[in-house]
Amino acid sequence: MSYIVPIGPYHPALEEPIHAKLYTEGEVIRDAEVFVGYNHRGIEKLATERNAIQTLVLVERVCGICSHSHAWAYAMAVEAINGVEVPKRGEYVRVITGELERLHSHFLWIGIALHIIGHDSMFMHVWDERECIMDMLEELSGNRVNYAMVTIGGARRDISDELRLSIEKRLDKLTDSLNRVIELCVNDKTVALRTKGVGVLTTADALKMGAIGPHARASGVDVDVRRDAPYSAYADFDFKVPVVESCDVYARVVVRLLECAESISIIRQALANLPSGPINLGNKLPKIKAGEFTSRHEAPRGQLIYKVVGDGGFNNHRVSIHVPSFKNTPTVPVMLRGNTVADAGLIIASIDPCFSCLDR
């Protein structure tokens, strides 16, 4: 018998509102539609009424999980328009904060995925280890969510020798914890039964629909802005881009776990080779010169794009934000087809969606 089953806009498996309409035969999904737009906050319009420093505060609140990425991408665009060169030490501090944020984002998502499939013991274990990352971010920035580490021309807070040693010590503990989590997720039968062969997005479909970030890399698409178009200090670091070709929810779990290991490696390299010198060019309020620039940044969920247009005044003339979830959300109906209603929440969550980012 045919049914139309609504998922959302409020649903226990979804942290943010989205509406998916499932067309089913029995409990098998034959087709699906996704509707967004429940979170619109007018961020881009508000940015035109603010100067560069005020905009950093604003765009950090586009997303609570990748707030540093938004501030960093915006700052890179303004710095390019104004011809500003960020001190090397400031770039390293930005990278360290960004990779800690990636670790936090991936640990948070893995925990939520385990919760959705009903494996609450592993969910609590992963989120307990996530606290180690939160402690490092709090020690580095003073904040657990919006870190306020970026200013135009560099970073706002430096890393002392004492802090560097503390982070390195915490990374040792986190590495052991990550290896344990990888072992549990890869070998656990419950995880395998609920994720292998579920929510398949083929490489061809991922390319055709423009999937990006870990979601694309879990479908065999080898793409990462940090490597393909290095920005900031990423050209200084040696790291791999994990790619998995099974194209299912299991692959999305594995890719994010492997990326965590690479992020730890990048942070270690940055701490070991932290350049001397200043971290910024001062905290003066800059005018945004007449011109425009488009910056690309590899946020935890994928490529984040900021286009900033200046007219020579203190305020932005235009800020256009293109977020990873905007590219990945259209793949959801494709992944839902042929699966059961019971797996719908997990499949939607498997793109690591940020619908607040998407709606801005």
Automatic annotation (TrEMBL):
A Pfam cross-reference name: NiFeSe_Hases
Molecular function in Gene Ontology: ferredoxin hydrogenase activity; NAD binding; nickel cation binding; oxidoreductase activity, acting on NAD(P)H; quinone binding
Binding site for Ni(2+): C63, C66, C354
InterPro entries xref list: ComplexI_49kDa-like (IPR052197), NADH_Q_OxRdtase_suD (IPR001135), Ni-dep_hyd_lsu (IPR001501), Ni-dep_hyd_lsu_Ni_BS (IPR018194), NiFe-Hase_large (IPR029014)
Domain NADH-quinone oxidoreductase subunit D: 117-282, 287-360
Binding sites annotated in the UniProt record for Fe cation: C66, C357
Cofactor: Ni(2+); Fe cation
Binding-site list for Mg(2+): E44, I321
Keywords assigned: Iron, Magnesium, Metal-binding, Nickel, Oxidoreductase
PANTHER family: FORMATE HYDROGENLYASE SUBUNIT 5-RELATED, HYDROGENASE-4 COMPONENT G
Protein's name according to its UniProt entry: Nickel-dependent hydrogenase large subunit
